[in-house]
Amino acid sequence: MASDARYYRLAMKIFADFSGTIAIPAVLAALSGKWLDERYGTEPWYLIILLALALTLTAMIVVRKAKKYRVEYEKLMK
């Protein structure tokens, strides 16, 4: 039972970390892109560019974090 608690804690940690990693850049990119498009009359170009940039950076960060969490998970398996 004690080992199950460690797995659940790790799972919740991963969930919270990935949720923020995915949501925050997307929301910031959408808000910034919309604001820039309205300001400069370039709708929807800034929005598209910033969302694509956020997606790319988020993917890179998620891969890096997944590797880190894999190591943590493997430590729990021992």
Description:
The chain has 78 residues and is mostly helical. It is built from 2 helices and no strands. The longest helix has 39 residues, at 2-40. The two termini are 16 Å apart.
Provide a count of the helices.
Answer: 2
Euclidean distance between termini CA atoms: 16 Å
From the alpha-carbon coordinates, what is the Rg to the nearest angstrom?
Answer: 18 Å
Look at the helices and sheets and give the structural class. Answer: mainly alpha
Which descriptor suits the 3D outline?
A: elongated
Q: Taking all residues together, what is the mean pLDDT?
A: 95
Strand residue percentage: under 5%
Please outline the major beta sheet.
none
Order of helices and strands: HH
Would you identify the regions where 5 or more consecutive residues have pLDDT less than 50?
none
Number of strands: 0
Helix content: over 70%
